[in-house]
Specification:
The protein has strands spanning 2-5, 17-19, 23-24, 37-41, 46-53, 56-62, 68-75, 87-94, 99-105, 108-113, 119-124, 138-144, 147-152, 156-161, 170-176, 182-187, 199-203, 208-212, 218-223, 230-236, 239-244, 248-253, 259-264, 270-276, 281-286, 290-298, 305-314, 319-325, 332-338, 342-348. The chain is mainly beta and 349 residues long. Strand 9 (99-105) and strand 10 form a beta hairpin.
Length: 349
Amino acid sequence: MVAADSEGEKDPGVRMFRRERSIPLQGSAAALCNNLSVLQMPTRNLTLFGVVHGPTAQVLSAAPDGAPLAQRQLHVSERAGVSPPLITQVHWCVLPFRVLLVLTSHQGIQMYESDGSVMVYWHALDSGDAASVQAVFARGIAASGHFICVGTWSGRVLVFDIPAKGPNVVLSEELRGHQTPITDIATEPAQGQDGVADVVTADDSGSLCVWRSGPEFTLVTRILGFGVPCSSVQLWQGIIAAGYGNGQVHLYEASTGTLNIQINAHARAICALDLAPEVGKLLSAAEDTFVHIWKLSRSPENGCIEVEHCCGECVSDTQVCGARFCDPSGSSFAVTGYDLTEILRFSSV
């Protein structure tokens, strides 16, 4: 295992990203990990952004220069006499044949058409097996092939089979590999390779489960936690990047669960990871107000995982709670912060 730090690898005076026009929000982002989703729509020359605040999810569209074009607010259906349920995450799932916007809350799972205009499916959470003092919620969303995976408070992962069109969504499977609440889920296309580990689920204890998707999901390996929550996870070319509450990023081999590199990336808890798949750039954001960009690769000699620190940006006086690349090449990214009524945008110099 190799340890690495984010300090001193680049001249801090060199800025590789610059601030661009911010996108205004009607309210601030809630203090939740992974509280930003981004969907680029190049054919329409716009980008969609999703942010959660309390019982509301905001869906915004913006032009390439950051000019806001439209905004929509989504809510969870309320029951009489019950306070509005809190939304835990909003995320776009890009499937081979359609794009769905998935919203999770303390009450259930809602799936919409990509612009949030039409609800396609609603799945209520069953609290029957939850202790009376235990919060019921869903969190952690990712698409794998024609499936959408959603994590729950019980540690189970619900796998939904999505039709090419229409509302006939089917709960096809429940994955049982975790003992504590799911925090995040990551996937990558297996591209028809049999036996490839292409789904990773993370939980509040820091444990990871690596799965092979298919008509029936298969557990490939389990990576035990060490008592620190894994708040965010990403998967790229067989490399698992996991961000933890102690500010570290661990890089594992997906096929074996072997820890290759441990990065002391941040001084505070990590709140978001993201990957630019075209180039292998990894973004890490944390409560220390920093966003770091890393370059992942494999050694041409032995195939071992390698990492290089590219740059860091300080988002001063902000409790960062979400960060995402805005394009697959990693040339721009966006950041949300608690009590911040705008989405900050950065692009490469």
